[in-house]
Recover the amino acids of this structure.
């Protein structure tokens, strides 16, 4: 039997029409300052919340547990114990969330009164975007504007807000692949080139003495720290040394970020 | 048609769905692999949709940037068409 797709007499016409349509949609989106993409990102946030809820329900039901492990569990655990474990698990989740939010409270307290920002949840994985961006669940309605700095609970700048929707915003990572930023470490200024995932590298003269774990600041981000020196590679045959700059937190594990208004 | 030997339409639908959902949740290379796979085997219009969704979701948006996935999708769909016609037509 022939495939229904092959029975079409004019697949090129259909293909041409859809190509024109997607280009048209993209152009409309650009001309209307992202009206289409903001709707899509809002949908993505809702979609992610639903999928997380369903995922928790499925994993909680033990549907994907193996039969052997379920049998072992049935033999060894009483219903009461399971109940306590569930409560303990729920407590751990709340405790870790609370710890992260407490860290943000300390960060907010350490800042001046006119530099108060917004804590926002990270709603996408940093690995999903090919452009070194991630999505947060707060937008214009929460007072977030383009150019706002995005900080971790430790005060490191991970990126800046590059686009805002009503309740979502896109954050461009400081160390996005190929992105370049002027940085200072050990009193020396240099240009660091991002390689994604909170990592960057830079070339500095070998005469400079820079220590591992030394903080790296960015003048264009208000002299805030953007990472630490993770490793230094130097060779006697070369006049320069390679600095490997890392963010001291794992970007993928970030659940909340602190958004500092751009006026500061 | 058993579940072990699904029809081409089912495979196409499954790969398209993985590519589209992958644009939201999975590492970026998974939608790309789905786009290439679909474009090589079928005159798949969904390749363009996946490319558009990827760019709309993840382009930084602060200045004009090339929509790499959309361009890749268009290139794949049109470049692979003669190849498909040559080698996969019964």
């Amino acid at each position: 039997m022939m495939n229904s797709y092959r029975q079409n007499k004019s697949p090129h016409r259909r293909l041409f029409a859809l190509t024109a349509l997607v280009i048209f949609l993209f152009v409309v989106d650009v001309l209307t300052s992202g009206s289409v993409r903001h709707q899509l990102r809002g949908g993505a946030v809702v979609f992610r919340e639903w999928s997380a809820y369903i995922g928790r329900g499925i994993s909680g039901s033990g549907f994907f547990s193996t039969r052997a492990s379920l049998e072992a569990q049935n033999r060894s655990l009483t219903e009461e114990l399971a109940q306590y474990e569930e409560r303990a698990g729920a407590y751990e989740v709340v405790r870790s969330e609370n710890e992260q939010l407490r860290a943000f409270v300390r960060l907010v307290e350490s800042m001046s009164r006119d530099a108060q920002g917004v804590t926002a949840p990270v709603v996408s994985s940093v690995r999903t975007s090919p452009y070194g961006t991630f999505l947060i669940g707060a937008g214009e309605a929460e007072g977030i504007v383009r150019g706002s700095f995005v900080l971790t609970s430790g005060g490191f700048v991970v990126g800046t807000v590059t686009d805002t929707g009503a309740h979502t915003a896109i954050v461009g990572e400081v160390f996005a692949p190929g992105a370049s930023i002027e940085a200072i470490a050990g009193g020396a200024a240099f240009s660091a080139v991002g390689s994604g995932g909170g990592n960057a590298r830079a070339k500095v003269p070998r005469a400079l003495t820079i220590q591992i774990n030394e903080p790296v600041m960015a003048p264009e981000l208000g002299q805030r720290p953007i990472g630490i020196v993770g490793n230094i590679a130097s060779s006697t045959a070369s006049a320069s040394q390679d600095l490997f700059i890392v963010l001291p937190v794992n970007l993928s594990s970030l659940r909340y970020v602190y958004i500092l208004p751009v006026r500061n | 048609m058993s579940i072990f030997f699904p029809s081409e339409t089912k495979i196409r639908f499954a790969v398209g769905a993985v590519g589209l959902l992958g644009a939201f949740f999975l590492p970026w290379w998974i939608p790309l692999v789905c786009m290439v796979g679909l474009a090589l085997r079928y005159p798949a219009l969904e390749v363009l949709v996946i490319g558009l969704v990827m760019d709309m979701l993840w382009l930084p948006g602060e200045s004009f940037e090339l929509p790499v996935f959309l361009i890749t999708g268009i290139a794949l769909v049109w470049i692979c068409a003669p190849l498909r016609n040559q080698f996969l037509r019964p």
